[in-house]
């Protein structure tokens, strides 16, 4: 009878050990599935910000294109106005476009943003310079001709430099 009791104790100990092993494995697996799976701390953030960054570069490229002399002349230069009125419209358009895109600076590098700001300031300063060279009675067509011919002589222009910076940085993200 005593040998039977010893055998029963050994079986009970074995059973408890096996049961403990199963319970431990179960809890370990459950614990692993409850932990959020991120490879790196930046992995979740980059999947959210990457599309925003690419969109920012895209919007700034569109901004650069919209304030180019060709586009300004195409959009605003068709109206027969005194040159001073067209000048005011162009400067206002550049400033409004810039204000519309100013928030994009948080998604692009400082180099890219500085290039965009420099290009905007360049365009306004060029318009100021050209207006100073035109006679008071000049018409919008005169300003447009001056603007386009002056722009073609300035290669590479700050607009082109900014576009190159934006495109290069956007390609790095892709």
Per the principal axes of the C-alpha atoms, what is the gross shape? rod-shaped
Radius of gyration over alpha carbons?
Answer: 34 Å
Overall number of domains: 1
What distance separates the N and C termini? 78 Å
What fraction of the residues are assigned to beta strands by DSSP? under 5%
How many E-type strands?
0
Low confidence ranges: 37-41
Write up what this structure looks like:
With 174 residues, the chain is mostly helical. It has one domain (49-173). It contains seven helices and no strands. α2 (41-66) packs antiparallel against α7 (158-173), α4 (83-101) crosses α6 and α5 packs antiparallel against α7 (158-173). The radius of gyration is 34 Å and the shape is rod-shaped. InterPro entries: DUF7935. Keywords: Membrane, Transmembrane, Transmembrane helix. The chain crosses the membrane at residues 6-23.
Task: Compose a concise summary of this entry.
With 174 residues, the protein is mainly α. It has seven helices and no strands.
Provide key terms for this protein.
mainly alpha; rod-shaped; 174 residues
Strand-helix topology:
Blueprint: H1 2-34, H2 41-66, H3 69-76, H4 83-101, H5 110-133, H6 140-153, H7 158-173
Helix pairs in contact: 2-4, 2-7, 4-5, 4-6, 5-7
């Amino acid at each position: 009878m005593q040998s039977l009791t010893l055998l029963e104790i050994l079986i009970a100990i074995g059973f408890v050990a096996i049961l403990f092993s199963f319970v431990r494995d179960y809890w370990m697996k459950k614990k692993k599935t409850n932990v959020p799976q991120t490879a790196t701390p930046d992995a979740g953030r980059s999947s959210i910000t990457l599309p925003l960054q690419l969109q920012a570069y895209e919007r700034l490229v569109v901004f650069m294109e919209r304030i180019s002399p060709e586009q300004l002349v195409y959009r605003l230069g068709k109206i027969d106005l005194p040159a001073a009125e067209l000048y005011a419209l162009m400067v206002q358009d550049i400033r409004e476009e810039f204000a519309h895109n100013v928030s994009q600076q948080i998604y692009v590098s400082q180099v890219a943003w500085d290039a965009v700001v420099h290009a905007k300031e360049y365009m306004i300063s060029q318009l100021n310079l050209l207006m100073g060279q035109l006679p008071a009675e000049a018409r919008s067509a005169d300003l447009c001709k001056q603007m386009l011919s002056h722009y073609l002589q300035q290669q590479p222009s700050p607009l082109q430099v900014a576009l190159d910076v934006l495109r290069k940085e956007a390609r790095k993200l892709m």
